[in-house]
Amino acid sequence: MGKHFEGQRVLITGASGGIGRAICEAFAREGAILLLTDVDSKGLDELSQSLSKTTQVLTAKMDVTNEQEVAQVVSFFLQMVGHVDILVNNAGVSTMNYFWELSEKEWDFNMNVNAKGVWLVSKHVVPSMIKRRKGVIVNMASMAGKIGAPLLAHYSASKFAVVGFTQAAAKELAPYGIRVNAVCPGFVKTPMQDREVVWEAKLRGIDDPEKVREEYVKQTPLGRLCYPEDVAKVVLFLASDYSGFMTGQALNVTGGICMH
């Protein structure tokens, strides 16, 4: 059997993080040509070295909130490989606080990376997809984009925005044969979660951050945390022709916590 994404060009933002890395590894196993971006150039180099043993990898340091940088990087990738078949808008950030304690800087940081970044990268990739009348976009939303999460009002707002953008973009791009869907992970075991449980424990006056993680597991009907690989599998499904008649969807990968 051939590899499912053999020779397809896949652009992934936030590539070197926990979920990003799992997505990159999954596409690499399926033969994709990887176009990887991140603000962490060291993490990107390390990931590229690991993946280039099995597939073709191009990398570029890119801040998804900087339109000039996004335009330059997308243009560079298009010059190098001709077109982008699949765009995975994965770059994301989080901080935690009660909304009345949030600084404007924290609000803007979350909104800019999580919501504006999805729009900016899509804006610059989509014209070449429209020209070919072909392409798939997968956006990283969150369970917090369907259920408002305490201590994460700004993050929730940014991820609700991703779901709304996904639906609108899906309708606008449908006439060109381009599909747009989103993934809504639950409590994912990543370095981001490691930071979040410490923040949450402190904000809620809980002495041990691991108690917060135990709460996450108790809230999950399937009885465990989500892993980056769980999310990566759903991204590949949405990027593949197995989901060929799906667009504008926001699929939950929450172990049953969110069912709508």
TrEMBL record:
Keyword Chloroplast: no
One Pfam family of this chain: adh_short_C2
UniProt keyword list: Oxidoreductase
Gene3D superfamilies according to UniProt: NAD(P)-binding Rossmann-like Domain (3.40.50.720)
Entry keyword Heme: no
GO molecular function per UniProt: oxidoreductase activity, acting on the CH-OH group of donors, NAD or NADP as acceptor
Record PANTHER family: 3-OXOACYL-[ACYL-CARRIER-PROTEIN] REDUCTASE, SHORT-CHAIN DEHYDROGENASES/REDUCTASES FAMILY MEMBER
Entry's family note: Belongs to the short-chain dehydrogenases/reductases (SDR) family.
Protein name per its UniProtKB record: SDR family oxidoreductase
Organism lineage: Bacteria, Thermotogati, Thermotogota, Thermotogae, Thermotogales
